[in-house]
Amino acid sequence: MRFCVVCFFWLLSLQAAIAVLPSRVNIDGTWYTNGQTAYIKCDKTNVNVYIDLVIIPGPSNLKISVSPSSNFTVSSTPSDIMKTLNLDPSRQNGWIDVAHVGISGNIRVYIRQKPPTPSISVEANICAGNSRSITATSDYNFQGTHPINLVWETYGGVTVNGGSSFTQNGTSSTVTIANISNGSYSVKAVIPSCGNLESDVVNIKLGPPVITNPNYWLFDPGSNMWQFSQTSGGPGVTYSFYVSSGSAVLNPQNQDCYITTPNGATICVTATNSCGTGIPYCFYLPPAGGYLKTVYPNPATDLLSIEFERDVSSHIVSFDLILYSEKSMEAVKRLAHEDLAAKDSFHTNKKLEIDVKDFPRGVYYIHLIPDPKSNLPIQKVRVVLE
Q: What is the 3-state secondary structure (H, E, C) of the chain?
């Protein structure tokens, strides 16, 4: 009898261990495991979700717990192991976490009503004056009831089958892409019967590479080390960083770079592939003190002159300028980065003049506010008007 009691509790502990994570979840009639994606027909507004029944002592452990992304909701059903998942009214993608009530751990399945993003057979570059046959496919399951179109579009000096766009019904489409004078093409899957519901778009740039989504921020304030990053431009692309003006130590990391510049510098980066070298992207990194060089006269009466560091870019201004009144604590003058870039004096000699003769006399503060992504502090200068 004692052995049987031990066996009984051993079996209970084994069943509890099995039930910590559901091994799979059924969504709209198909089983999925952790990390998989469930594609649901685009005309459905809700689906049933259930798991395998596992017998464990305690009524709470028989129930299913479904936690959805914020754009989905869950309704209870008469069954403890089944829920109704209400999908996004706009057919946006989401996910659900499925678990046993009262037991830690869950599995996640991603829910999509949009058609799958097309894949491209050849991602190699097509240089100007050349063409290539390209095939796009979308791994779509509902072509029989909700057929999709594959829609191609071109931009710049690129054509698809001799034109600017081409549409083909089906999950596979083969076209001829011709690069006449550099540009790009895109392809997406569209479900006409569901309000032209679109997949994510695949965009392919042809010709010499372009620096994409450049970003830079202060990595180490002590040494004034900055980090530059950008989105890689595709296979076979190499990058070159150089100092255009000022002084800096460069530590390239493929398409990214660590840059140390105590006194400020303008850095440029180019990208090269089999079609050539693209247009350089240049950006200014301020010295350790920031962008602001000096403010004068102080005290001021009629005109307040503000000078910036010599190498500040005239076209890519990454800070705003605000003049605050100490008495009212309100901004009396506000210049956004696009306003600064439009000033002729800023272009020619990195200088700005503010007419202050009509402002009430007293104490004011200039705030130079860098792009938050730079991690630079706000520079503040106290100014007296008399």
A: CHHHHHHHHHHHHHHHHHCCCCCCEEECCEEECCCCEEECCCCCCEEEEECCCCCCCCHHHHCEEEEECCCCEEEECCCCCEEEEECCCCCCCEEEEEEECCCCCCEEEEEECCCCCCEECCCCCCCCCEEEEEEEECCCCCCCCCCCEEEEEEEEEEEECCECEEEEECCEEEEEEEEEEEEEEEEEEEEHHHCCEECCCEEEECCCCCCEEEEEEEEECCCCEEEEEEECCCCCCEEEEEEEEECCEEEEECCEEEEECCCCEEEEEEEEECCEECCCEEEEECCCCCCEEEEECCCECCEEEEEECCCCCCCCCCEEEEEEECCCCCEEEEECHHHHHHCHHHHHHCEEEEECCCCCCEEEEEEEEECHHHCCCCEEEEEEEC
- Fold topology of 119-206: Immunoglobulin-like (2.60.40)
Q: Is 25-112 a CATH 3.40.50 domain?
A: no
Q: What is the mean pLDDT of the chain?
A: 86
Q: pLDDT tens digits, residue range 175-213?
A: 999 999 999 999 999 999 999 999 999 999 899 998 988
Domain borders along the chain are 25-112, 119-206, 209-288, 289-385
The fold adopted by the segment(s) 209-288 is Immunoglobulin-like (2.60.40)
- Prediction pTM value: 0.67
pLDDT over 80 at 278, yes or no: yes
Between 176 and 13, whose confidence is greater?
176
Domain 289-385 falls under CATH 2.60.40.1220: yes
